[in-house]
Amino acid sequence: MPYEYQCQQCKARSPERHDRRTDAELEQEEHRASEHGGLAPAAGDGVRQVHDAARGDGCLPSGSFLFVLFLIVALVSNCWGR
Ligand SMILES: [Zn+2]
Predict the structure, then answer these.
(1) Ligand 1 centroid, distance to 22 Cα (angstroms)
(2) Quick check: pTM over 0.70?
(3) Cβ atoms within 10 A of the Cβ of 72, count?
(4) How many angstroms separate the alpha carbon of residue 49 from the centre of ligand 1?
(5) How far is the CA of 42 from the centre of ligand 1 (A)?
(6) Which end of the chain, N or C, is less surrounded by CB atoms within 10 Å?
(7) Overall domain count for the chain
(8) Residues 12 and 32 in one domain
């Protein structure tokens, strides 16, 4: 999963996600240097892992949801047929 840097104080976030944690931490250092004079922001900041939307992980829950919906519809229509 990719990494993302987020600064709570500036409400700022990485423009793009990083494959390696060290890249995101580098961005953290650069942001602190340019926006906070090299200090850590009082409101907090940090690197976190984010879901890779492009990989299609988000499709799995909706796919199984549709399957359950199909089973319910099949069951109900079977009951009505009798
Ligand atoms: Zn900041």
Answers:
(1) 18
(2) no
(3) 10
(4) 19
(5) 9
(6) C
(7) 2
(8) yes
